[in-house]
Specification:
With about 60 residues, the chain is mainly alpha-helical. It is about 50% helix and about 0% strand.
Length: about 60
């Protein structure tokens, strides 16, 4: 995931009976980490570098 949005908050980590957290909690110890890839500066740099390369290729 690039960002932890509504899907992550409700469907994955929510308290509803059909969230992944609720389904897995009876069987496993569940730790929630709502960090997305774009929360990490090094990953953002990779994205930007790739975008720059694509735009340069399109304009050549």
């Amino acid at each position: 995931m690039n960002i932890a949005g509504e899907h992550a908050l409700s469907d994955l980590a929510g308290d509803g009976e059909d969230s992944w957290k609720s389904v897995l909690s009876p069987l496993f110890k569940v730790n929630i980490n709502l960090s997305g890839l774009l929360d990490y500066e090094d990953i953002v740099k990779i994205y930007i570098d790739h975008l720059i390369a694509v735009f340069e290729e399109l304009h050549n």
